Amino acid sequence: MRFLVDANLPPVLAAWLRERGHAADHVSDTGEASRTDTQVWREAISAGCILVSKDEDFARRRSVSSVGPQVVWIRFGNTRRIALLSHLERVWPQLEAAVQRGEPLIEVS
After folding, report:
1. Is 108 helix (H, G, I), strand (E, B) or coil?
2. pLDDT 10s digits, 11-53
3. I need a labelling partner for 12 at 20 to 30 A (CA). Which of 5, 52, 85, 98 fits?
4. How far apart are the first and last CA of the chain?
5. 68: left (phi over 0), alpha (psi -120 to 50) or beta
6. Which residues are CB-contacts of 43 (< 8 A; sequence separation ≥ 6)?
């Protein structure tokens, strides 16, 4: 699996995904971090990435479109990095299974 982590999440999340054997970049790793949502969306499509974001706009966009990247929508509030990664560790088996099934929008709360 290949992931693109949006600017509203910490770069350490991309490293965490790489530690689990996946290709992962943070938007700050792939060029200008202040890209528009449309630019990030297009980058995810062109690179074949699963887009990981806290941005509800991506979730809405994916829910109404049959075309686009898979979106992992992180739906819990601002938290420390360690708490974010700890929560993702707990839900990772279900999240990974949803990605493998090809679900277009995966909500993580």
Report:
1. strand
2. 999 999 999 999 999 999 866 667 889 999 999 999 999 999 9
3. 98
4. 21
5. left
6. 4, 27, 30, 35, 49
Residue with tokens 């690179």: 47
Residue 105 identity: L
Q: What is the pTM of this model?
A: 0.93
109: nearest Cα among 77, 80, 63, 86: 77
DSSP assignment letter at 49: P
**Buried residues in 70-107 as b, exposed as e (16+ CB within 10 A):** bbbbbeeeeeeeeebbeebeeeeeebeebbeeeeebbe
Relative orientation angle of helices 12-19 and 81-100, to the nearest 10 degrees: 50
Q: What type of residue sits at position 43?
A: E
